[in-house]
Amino acid sequence: MATPSRSLADDIRGRSDAELIDLVLARPDLARPAPADLTSLAARAGTRASVQRAVEALDRGHLQVLEAVVVVGDGADRADLLRLLGTDERKTVDAIVSDLWRSALVWRGADGHHVVRTVPEVLGSSIAGLGVPMRELRPSSQPEDADPERIRATLAQAPDDSRAMLERMTWGPAFGVLPAAPPGRTTARWLLEHHLLVPVSTDRVALPREVGLVLREGRLHRSLELTPPDIEARAVSLVDAAAGGAASECLTHVDELAAAWGADPPRVLRAGGLSVRDLRVTQLALDLDPEHTAFVVELAYAAGLVADDGEVVPVWAPTSEIDEWSSSESGHRWATMALAWLGSTRAPHLVGRRSTGTGPANALGPDVQWPAIRAIRREVLRELTSLQPGSAADHASLRERLAWRRPNRSAAVLDEAVEAVLREAEWLGVTGRGALSEAGRALIASPDSVDDVAAAMAAHLPSPVDHILVQADLTAVAPGPLVGGLGSFMRLAADVESRGGATVYRFTPESVRRALDAGWTAADFIETVRRSSRTPVPQPLEYLVSDVARKHGQTRIGGAAAYIRSDDEAVLDTMLASRDLTPLRLRRLAPTVLVSSADPRVLVDLLRDNGFAPVHEGQDGTVVHAETPRRRAGSRRRGPGPTVSPVDRPHTQSLVDGLRAAEATADQRRVEDEARPGPRIQAMDPVVTLSLLRDAVADRHGVWIGYSDGHGATSRHLIHPQRVEGGRVRATDESGHEKSFSVHRITGATLEG
């Protein structure tokens, strides 16, 4: 029988162009780098690394049939395969076997289908929970030891406790540890004596494959799953409206993150990432739970809106791109983030989980990098795409279907990742109320088109509103996302109390003082609220603003080293008497003036912390308004991105055409070589070639050599070497002329005769 690798090569050389294209499209790794000819393509298709990649991509149905083909053996009858699988669905099994042949995991011989040699190595010794064959466990075993009838007869005589031990090993694992207690030893001894178990070490035994199949009544799998399980779904309404609301909230969260980090950027950890403390501060600023906060941070990072600024003391700051992004239309803003999320290889749900290091994974850190999450996102969304619009998938059935698609993945890891993807899709607005939104379908259909994705979402985003509803309890309700100027004013002048379909803001003394510090006067503050509110401005708000404004700036601080002046001497007396202000070393110069060696900004902060309301005064006596700093990560020069050449059908067609031409050239070269005089010259190591040439010089013997010219063409020469030195061979050729040959161009040599 031909060897598997040679037969696989013959099988691949005999395929049509269309079948070769299907093979390369099913296994794109075969095209990188391009093989020299079809023989090289077959050799690469049989390597362990390529086969393992192909096996890992199989769904459970294809994997079960492949395992059955391995167990049945080479050239087995299709009826034996169906019997082992325990099914009469011949068409389904035939289609799956054809798929396995199409991807070159099996090849066709004259006697039937054969498994590629490396497939059993990739599947492992325990296929479908079965052990290895009897002849491998006991080389001295006789053929009758593996006979199913003999095994059934022996099992019929087995004691109950022995039969119970075998039943525990029937569906795997096929290896067990001998019991330490005497009763268990006695039970195992009977099984060992009758060759139903085989010892593999002093305390371990194995269940031979033949015995396991008899115990399973000839079936390889406990349950056959050739087709994917159905996804249970329920009908929901207002999907796009819910998705649009979630998308709008997500945009707001990113805006608030940029504002917070632009004013007070957090430090970058030495190992990279965001500290737990800074993530907690961000969580409080956004008023979200930890998982949602980590998602917003990672989303902004994936979209290129925040980054490490690369300074000597690095911080996480908004990038220069965020200004252009903030001024874009809402649909494009969302599309930018959605496409970044779909293509990101970072898994926000891993933040806070124990990593391979000594502590939990940090947001924006290296431990959150997980390339597999990108494929899982796409698979989840594709499965949701298969449902009718307005249908929300049951999470359990969706996880079961994805587990069927990728049975080689860890079930626990896959379940956790699927739940995280569904949760993030809901936060982002890709889904609404559990069903895929119109924008989510556009995201899958056009992953390279920002305009198409933006247009699909733009129609469902809430329109910005230009008004608020101020209430008597010092709160203001924004019935939707606020327009730019009003939104900036409310974030400055009030604190967010709750979010949802409407945002509730609360005016506090601290928020009002924040606006006054930024240069707003009390009159401008009240007028802006009156102009923007659809309800009258309540008196409590006017009293609050007036009271804060009356105290604001009553005490002034300047830098002479610095000074504090106030018309109210009692206020200065209180400062001098305060123990908390002792570190400032305040000293009175006049009834209304104090001085300190502290920086004016430090004086302002400490006095405010102790209940005073000072303002910073410039050298000309005017108030210095505090401006909110806007930190930006410096733009870095970016080189050209990696050039990606996809393995698509046009590329594969060109590859197959080249392989056909190379195969024809190789066939012609083999014919020409066979027609030439002299022996065939095999390629050999240069060290061996030099040794042979030196022996030929000593023995005055002729040598056939293969010689490569400057264009890569190889010719044959019969030479009589005279000396070998300096990397060259001086010799006479067939015509008696003396020539010099470079040793590094000699591809091989063999002695004449």
UniProtKB/TrEMBL annotation:
One of its GO terms (molecular function) is helicase activity. It comes from the Bacteria. The keyword ATP-binding applies. It holds the Pfam family Helicase_C_3. InterPro entries: XPB/Ssl2_N. Keywords: ATP-binding, Helicase, Hydrolase, Nucleotide-binding. Residues 617-655 are annotated as: Disordered. Residues 468-590 form the Helicase XPB/Ssl2 N-terminal domain. This is Helicase-associated domain-containing protein. It comes from Terrabacter ginsenosidimutans.
